[in-house]
Amino acid sequence: MTSAGLAAPIVFSDRMPPGMRPLLDLQDPQGLASKDGLRMLNDRPINAEAPPHLLDDDVTPANRLFVRNNGHPPAAADIDPDTWQLQVGGEAVPEEKTFTLKELKERFTPRTYQLTIECAGNGRSEFSPPATGNQWTTGAVGCPRWTGVRLRDVLAECNVTDAAVYIGYYGADTHLSGDPAKDPISRGVPMQKALEDETLLAYAMNGEPLPLLNGHPLRLVCGGWPASTSGKWLQRIVVRDRVHDGVKMTGKAYRVPKRPVAPGSKVPDADMRIIEAMPVKSLVTFPKSGVVLKTGAEHDVRGHAWVGDGSIQRVDVSIDFGSTWQPAELSPAPNRLAWQRWRATFRLPQDGYYEVWARATDDQGRSQPMIVPGWNPKGYLNNACHRIAALAQS
Ligand SMILES: Nc1nc2c(c(=O)[nH]1)N[C@H]1C(S)=C(S)[C@@H](COP(=O)(O)O)O[C@H]1N2
Ligand SMILES: [Mo]
């Protein structure tokens, strides 16, 4: 047995009286101790990202997965996986249904996929003029292995009608104001995305219960789409007969201008569109930026590349500010919507300062810009190339 808040085994768990909750969760009610090494952007609500060199694993470990909270997460002591329920309702569900987490696990085939989730605001800190919100640099992304049941399989038992257009989620977290009538966030995806094989109601990550901060005991995972569509602490799914209009579905939230706008423009809501699949992007996870390397010797560089739909076709690396590029070796994705590992070697010809740049291209020929792309009011979708600094010394 492990505690959801702290990623450590409870050594004498077999001797704990039945029903007793580990005190540890009370000492760390926010589960923060499990997020060692992450950079805290905000602690009310908690938002934390991973520095790039801590995302070097093929499969993102729990302690390296970013945290993006819009409200206050439920307290560990208030979450009981044994009694947790998921309701399914909405205009396109004739009769509301309730499933316990136990029923979900028993009645539906478990599926495991490695799925990339990236906050739409990842990279926001580079926009000018700046956009308000968490100033994410590069670390609001991760690709753990999720286990759960297909949303599609569960919806198939709910007699969803032809009126279905969109799903929406509701979680157990609470609004920052403390007002119980307000939702911190309630987003969703069109039916086509909801019904994909990889869209999961996930209860485990990397073979363990979900970490508290990442949605324990149940969350939606919509790989490749803005992670804001992957509802945490999931209690209710609605199947809507229109585009879901929950909190942060409307106005400027998770929307970008339909057409390019000048930086700093005011954009009317009617000219904004909902962000769907995330753009092509990559990260250099080794070496760590600022590394000192031997001049003339061969060195490894590696990272990940991903895109919200389709797959990565190539990754190129440059050590001369993009004048020349060298193709990296690219691994296939373990499944759809998982990031892909790339690696290359390079030599730095003489002593001095260099930058190593990486650029991914997807199977539709779309690639990453060198500098921040299309400014937008809330600072979403910055997929500019990642760069690291390296110093060569003989
Ligand atoms: N219930 C709930 N679900 C949520 C959120 C939230 O605040 N509450 N934040 C969303 C946003 S904006 C993101 S980017 C992802 C972050 O997932 P993570 O914290 O597991 O990395 O969760 C999404 N799901
Ligand atoms: Mo997000």
Task: For the structure shown, list the relevant keywords.
394 residues; mainly beta; Immunoglobulin-like; Sulfite Oxidase, Chain A, domain 2; 2 domains; five-stranded mixed β-sheet; five-stranded antiparallel β-sheet; 4 helices; 26 strands; globular; disordered N terminus; binds the ligand Nc1nc2c(c(=O)[nH]1)N[C@H]1C(S)=C(S)[C@@H](COP(=O)(O)O)O[C@H]1N2; binds molybdenum atom
Structure, explained:
- The chain is mainly beta and 394 residues long.
- It folds into 2 domains: 13-30 and 278-393, Immunoglobulin-like; 62-250, Sulfite Oxidase, Chain A, domain 2.
- It is built from 4 helices and 26 strands.
- It has helices at 24-27, 101-107, 151-155, 191-194, and strands at 39-43, 46-49, 67-68, 85-89, 97-100, 111-114, 117-118, 141-142, 145-150, 166-171, 188-190, 200-205, 208-209, 219-221, 234-240, 255-257, 272-274, 281-286, 291-294, 299-306, 312-318, 326-327, 329-330, 340-346, 352-362, 386-393.
- Strands 5-4-15-10-11 form a 5-stranded mixed beta sheet. Strands 6, 9, 12, 13 and 14 form a 5-stranded antiparallel beta sheet that branches. Strands 19-26-25-21-22 form a 5-stranded mixed beta sheet, with no helix packed on it.
- The longest helix is centred in the N-terminal third of the chain and has 7 residues, at 101-107.
- The chain binds ligand MTE and molybdenum atom (MO).
- Molybdenum atom binds at residues 68, 119-121, 227-228.
- The site of molybdenum atom has 6 residues, from loops.
